[in-house]
């Protein structure tokens, strides 16, 4: 128990379910306990949070500055609350392990989702800890990847057309690559994390020839997906999750066609870029 809230780990490596708190009225003591829990567990889950989108945006300010969403905000929602909306006639196509925005110099550190409309079952989201994934590497692999850098680049996805104009999408091919460390150091807890992403974003290893680098990245990307490093969030109405995007990969499961699903999303402005371990 901390600040009168109950924090229950979901798996040994990642995730916590937190109860005994109303996110519409968080005390400063509770806010501090939530920041600590997020840093330790990488993802924190709350159930039965019947709060408005305005309250959602306000709550998220305990983790930093909220930014205006690049997802289209719906009428009546504050600009920092975006909608991830899969309509009944639509099929969700983002169903792969990934991190959002790794192609930016400052990838979003903290993201949150609040369930607004759910299919009868399915549509779960999985979250994997990149810190646990690093710890789970062999000593030999840790030595092999020390000091390496990866090159990331933006690419079109299902959400692109909701965010960007045709001109912006066309310009993506010309976008510069962004260089990140392959092994990052989390300054908040001193832990190293394996900073990989799906190959459509994480294109190559700077210090290696393509073939060698691609094979190594593929191996590391597969490694992160081991069940030991992840948990599966089964959404319920009014479930809310906050996670460290830059220290996790997530996988939205696309198994609920032809049902509808709508989640609200809030992004916290990153203040640091990943640093080499
Ligand atoms: Fe995502």
CATH architecture call: 4-Layer Sandwich
Task: Briefly note the structural class of the backbone.
Answer: alpha+beta
Q: Tell me about the biggest sheet?
A: 7 strands, mixed
Heterogens: fe (ii) ion
Percent helix among the residues? 10-25%
Superfamily (CATH H level) name? Clavaminate synthase-like
Distance between the termini: 33 Å
Strand order of the largest sheet: 1-2-3-13-5-15-4
Describe what this molecule looks like in 3D.
- The protein has 277 residues and is α+β, with helices and mostly antiparallel strands.
- The protein has a single domain (6-270), classed as Double-stranded beta-helix (4-Layer Sandwich).
- Helix content is 22%, strand content 26%.
- A hairpin with a 6-residue loop joins strand 9 and strand 10 (192-194).
- The longest helix has 15 residues, at 210-224.
- The site of fe (ii) ion has 3 residues, from loops.
